Known about the structure:
The chain is built from 6 helices and 7 strands; from the N terminus they run H-E-E-E-E-H-H-E-H-H-E-E-H. The chain is of the alpha+beta class. The chain has one domain. Strands 1-2-3-7-6-4-5 form a 7-stranded antiparallel β-sheet.
Amino acid sequence: MEGIIQTFLPVMAVIVAAVGYRFWTHWHGGCRSRVYENLRREGQFRFPSVVDSRIPEMAEVTDHVQGERDGFEIHVFENSSDFVEEGKDIDTKTIVLVAHPEWQLPLFRIEPRDMTASLRQRVESVRPVPFPEDAAFARACFVSGPDHPAIRRVLSPAITRYLRLEGELSIESRGHALLFYETKTLLSHQRIHGILGLAMRMAGDLVSGKSDGPCSPAPMVEG
């Protein structure tokens, strides 16, 4: 009898662990869905019927709401699933996206100047965009992109002054849209609203001319 118990104990442990994990993921997924339901109930967002094909991160979402504010299109979305299709790597995080129909922003990425950014800089031989006029921003944030002069014109001191205070936040320009996220982080309802406030401030500054140049493509010259 003791031998039978010893044989089945590991099997039972695996079964209990599997059931517990599935229960946790189901509960966790429900909690994430409630975050998006609350955003929708606030009246600013609706559940979208289509996705932007220019944003590949939208292809594998578990939760997604869309809205408009002050002429900007806004999306909040994420993939919080434990299922990963073979051959794909899903970087689980919440993304706040702001787009404008007239934007032609230079492509760039702003990320915290941490070990990850430093490693990517060395491995990929990425040259950071210099910001000699804002040393505090340059110390806090690693900015990369193909067109350094255009990026510096868009990220004027009026904008970098408040971006350098954002800690773990990363920002990507896709030309027609800006993506805001914290790497591998599912954001709380409160943090989503905080990032939305920053995103709308930055978007408004870009449109109102607080950047030092037009939000349109410049020659692909690195320097």
